[in-house]
């Protein structure tokens, strides 16, 4: 075909300017093999030849790409050809926004296209070419068509699509009212193109020679093709192999006009050849493979399958009669009709799918159980296949797709060997497989494997007993993998080799991963009580006032409180990143769909906060006349809607708070009758104000509930009238039960919404037809729908959250935490995590039943039936007593004990060698939380301070031996701990910020907001002053027991005082702290805490280096201060290093190392010698630091973690109301080399330190 004379599709898609009268879409449809893909390629080449911006995508049935992949591909191509779009993407990257193939397709569409690309002014039209649209899964196709229909007419975008003339594509085009022009291929429409194609392949001499002997060769080929371009392509390939007129005639005569006959002829020739077995094997793999195989992979699987080794990889097409093609080293069938024919029973080369999948699954599992996936012999290195092992080319396919083939094979006698192979895999090489998956940087293969294995195991019950050991092992591993992905996924991606040691140790003791790979293999232990089983509740937050509202964005979630504050937390680590002040009880919260914007509302005030997460700042506020009933954003976050108690819906522009026209959701009949009475016999018809308003911008529907009235649905976007949904049994004028809550299913494929009634019924209905679908009696009062539309959560009067499959209202599981009434539920953006509000608490749940991504948006082709599993039994989480939460912890000197202060005023003693609690004291009043704890080993004195400012010093004797294993020994230990002597009890004059004990335990210092007080048991209050105002901080001199240090970091001044009477030893101006040159020239604020230990004359702290990603380690040498009375300044040294991630908090100094917690949750240490500039050779040899282990993010609840190094090998940390002892974990060591850029970091491998 000549590019200078484009065919009709090219003319149609490029003709004329983009006007409202010109359809945006051009639809080319025709039967299989009729040249639609060829036409698409020609359109693309033509557009590119005339310098028009063109993005294209080919849907392939064997790949099943997700909508996210399609959208990102189109966006990337548009950015490559358009400078404006490319500049927009760079701005997104600079702002820290990340979107990848795991992102939700709705978010990608709203954020990239609706929010950015389609809002830009384009200098020329943009063109999209989408081939084989009917190969897109039907559920995703409906969503895609819905997206297309919402493109504004002013957007200069022209779209060329091809498909078979299927009713599904046409129905969706009509349903979404998409205007288009249509062209058809096949028969007469394609004959001209086939004629041009045939003439381009045949030389004029051959045509003339054939015509002289047999007639018109071109006309005969066109006639028998019946307009099917694929047929013509295949026949031309066979004619190329005919070297005589007679052979050409024979070829044409033997090939019937039906495609199946054509394929049968090709297969007959294959079966008659010596390569019949080889061809059958190749076709089996090409047809059944989840993704196209490379030529090297195909050569290897053929060797593994039938023990035949191909010499070269360029003969595949010839061996298989050109039914397959090799393009860019990928082997595929030349058209979908080939696959359909080969798997149909009419084919003599019939390839049974189930049997073929079983055989492929068997080979994959055998490969996974082989030496290529054997775990490493030591913990020093990850498992790496031998470079000389030829079958390593099959590693990626086997590890990624073995579960796909398991899910697609039907249970039978011939598949009985698969389950033992799977059991062997889970018993031996599964950790290496997890490491390989994590190394890809994506967890989607792990999630997809979980889904496929669930399908396989559900089917396997037909031939295997559920009590079978291999079945039990596989089932338990699948359950563990769900939690493993959720809890340890980020750390696995960052450090894949941690799967061999850290992850099994940190998994619950009852988990199969811990049982098989950590129970006896390591001397390291996690000592606590909560980590025996997986907990459905990941975290829980307690607040000083009632939690009234919650909103969730992709990376953050926010909780609105009754005291008027809004707490913003990071989803990954549950860190508090911001605290906002609304000014009145925050009854409503909502987050943006594609941006980090947040809107809050009280009784009369609405505030919008921009920036996102830690950068949230007030944009504007507005006063409303009535109480807001809910809050929501438009799809592109440009508007915020505020439904009010009087039925009005205020609308504001998010950017500047300008009030827009109200959103009209009430019909004239409702609005006019809402304030009027009827005339009939004095009977009152006045409607009350709405009790509830819920709006779905995605569907363009609003639900309005009045008291004792049917639910009203307003189709405000289409301008249709308001309709009433009459619950079954209340159709004939009966007063219906009160509507308590409504949840829309935002997935346009579902056509569902849910309503909770006061009579206890939970009802689902079609919002378009008002047909009632399902009913479940639950007494639910709070509803929430997951963003993907698959799950409905209902909170009932028994404080239970019930999770349903929205479609069908099938109960999946019930979650009970034995706490207060559920006030609100919201799902995270990934639909697998949910949050609830109960009283003063916010709980974070991640039930195993909520898989990461339903199969409707996955690249695999299996059905999502495994999601509709039978409802699990009631799930009860470990009850967390908020009053028992640990608020302070201190180590008892060099002993094996730690003291913990709790929120309800008690102090507990814990043995870190066994992890058990030894004793509990109630020195302070009950329900007054302990704020500070200090221990003096020399005087055996514990100093505790509570929230009421009460300060108590107690002398007690710790047991000399901690080897209490028998009941008698434990009783003796408790009796010894109960022997204590109160020596001091006073109440400070103001809120206590710090508490210290002098080295000889003779005096006690408390620093308050207004100053400091020094007390002694014998003399009471010795001194009272105001030296420590302005955030100054005290520190006991580490080498001089008679002195106290006071750091005023705001003024960068150090003061020295005497412990005995708090007398000053330095001049009033203090000693100036001189910063190093790299910090002196830039405004920088030092930390309020320096770190040291007794006997060490150097103080340390860490700081983020200005204008750099490096971390600065500051050291202050106290030996430089000879005489405090005459010293005027002291120099601080700085050692800057590039760490893998920033320092989150310093755990302290133990022996000769500084221990700290990194931003990614790793406990790390660095030698003090490498930080001392005066140490010989330190600056040149300090090339690394040590990474020991990571703390799971779900254990890092709340603010700064409370953790201490309790001995040379162990760390104790606080988790809720427990002390967790990570015994021996400091023995894991890896030398992490300092890098100038984090991206250059090599793979980190934790190993066991050996002597």
UniProtKB/TrEMBL annotation:
Domain (GPI inositol-deacylase winged helix): residue spans on this chain: 276-346
Location of the region described as Disordered in the Swiss-Prot/TrEMBL record: 1-23
Occurrences of domain Nephrocystin 3-like N-terminal (ranges): 20-164
Record-linked SUPFAM superfamilies: P-loop containing nucleoside triphosphate hydrolases, Quinoprotein alcohol dehydrogenase-like, YVTN repeat-like/Quinoprotein amine dehydrogenase
Pfam families recorded: NPHP3_N (PF24883), WHD_GPIID (PF22939)
Keywords: Repeat
Domain of life, source organism: Eukaryota
Protein name, entry field: WD40 repeat-like protein
Source species: Parathielavia hyrcaniae
